[in-house]
Amino acid sequence: EVQLVESGGGLVQPGGSLRLSCAASGFTFSNYWMHWVRQAPGKGLVWVSRVNGDGSATSYADSVKGRFTISRDNAKNTLYLQMDSLTAEDTAVYYCARFMGGYWGQGTLVTVSS
Amino acid sequence: QSALTQPASVSGSPGQSITISCTGTSSDVGGSNFVSWYQQHPGKAPKLMIFEVSTRPSGVSNRFSGSKSGNTASLTISGLQAEDEADYYCCSNAGIREVFGGGTKLTVL
What we know:
In chain A, 0% of the residues lie in helices and 51% in strands. Chain A contains no helices and 11 strands. Chain B is mainly β. Chain B is 0% helix and 46% strand.
């Protein structure tokens, strides 16, 4: 059974940093592109970033480019999102997702507030 | 990077059919076969309902169907049921990025 479990969310001050993790199981992790998608409270889904199977190709939404870094450790079957220079506009539930097959985690809440 | 355009809300009575549109550009919906639709109930993770424009994943009811014409994709739900009441999002590949629609709230009257 495919499972994606996010962790690392929490309360952080504006300008601060946070690293999200997504532990994957039930499939050959290195074979798939992985994505981060976020959803601000009461708002819609917004794509954030993606990375290819071996980690050599990444892309970002303009709103996070230069501040967020996606990476993966295929030996640990784990996806990461390093988030720096956080602002209130980054407050959201962050989901990791394998679009192929439609697998999503349960999400982790990031709150940026002083 | 503009979101794809969806109606904010649609409604229908049980048993009826509804269609949700998703309008983009030739750089995303119009130029991609990777258009998908997600259903999201409150407090839950999104669920994939349609991928590659018109393909249903295993386990998704055949009441759900997808299509595309030009820069607009559509999701049709036939035989509306109370459990279909949810938010629906389209998503399209747009080259090196992905883009979601703003979401449509479906109300079953």
